[in-house]
């Protein structure tokens, strides 16, 4: 099916550091690759039995979720007011070629805020989980401030908006959306939005080697990824930014568990193991 084919295309790329010929790659580059993409410096490898798997029964998200709401949203009475240029850019939000830079310019450098509001609305998450619109807007704007904290040229609010839109694209074009609960969809979009919050622009290994405060705090394990989740959740301790205030206790705990798992999985030192796990899963499906 499309999902399996999509995964195979992702896995066709080389994924083993051992495949890199020593005579073709400078020593400094190989050292950087090893420190970034493998679990060194005492970081424990994920146990073999800890494999990602679909956790829910089929939950088909109805096509009505995607009913056009653009022009109604231009009224501030129903939520976030959309400038005309933003409405134009969102016509391509379901496409791989979506121009996040155009959105950022059209929105006055608030691409993450508008992307979060757009997708929370499209998937009916505001209504389903009773998320207060003022809280979402305040939370998103504060995220944008944090993404700009270190003037990071890559891990910034544009990158966060880009990744969030990419998650949306993958969900609707692979069909995986129909295998996820509404809570899991919320977790995916939320995790994408916060996944690099307050990124310093340096690697985990840099933090470990320099014995930075965050490395000491998180014991050298997925240092930045732990910070992204923790700092984002700390924002929601403030009432005006608590977008999860109306979740049930069980939903809150499950969402938090999912978000932590997703964001920590963006630690590049675990990506090769993830690729191996996906390959193994695909081979089992074919067998």
Automatic annotation (TrEMBL):
Any single Pfam family the record assigns to this protein: PDEase_I_N
UniProt-listed Enzyme Commission number(s): 3.1.4.17
Residue sites binding Zn(2+) 1 per the record: 159, 195-196
Membrane-crossing segments per the record: none
Catalyses which reaction(s): a nucleoside 3',5'-cyclic phosphate + H2O = a nucleoside 5'-phosphate + H(+); 3',5'-cyclic GMP + H2O = GMP + H(+); 3',5'-cyclic AMP + H2O = AMP + H(+)
Catalytic site: 155 (proton donor)
GO terms, molecular function: 3',5'-cyclic-nucleotide phosphodiesterase activity; metal ion binding
PDEase domain sequence ranges: 78-287
Superkingdom: Eukaryota
Keyword terms of this UniProt record: cAMP, cGMP, Hydrolase, Metal-binding
Protein name: 3',5'-cyclic-nucleotide phosphodiesterase
Source organism phylogeny: Eukaryota, Metazoa, Chordata, Craniata, Vertebrata
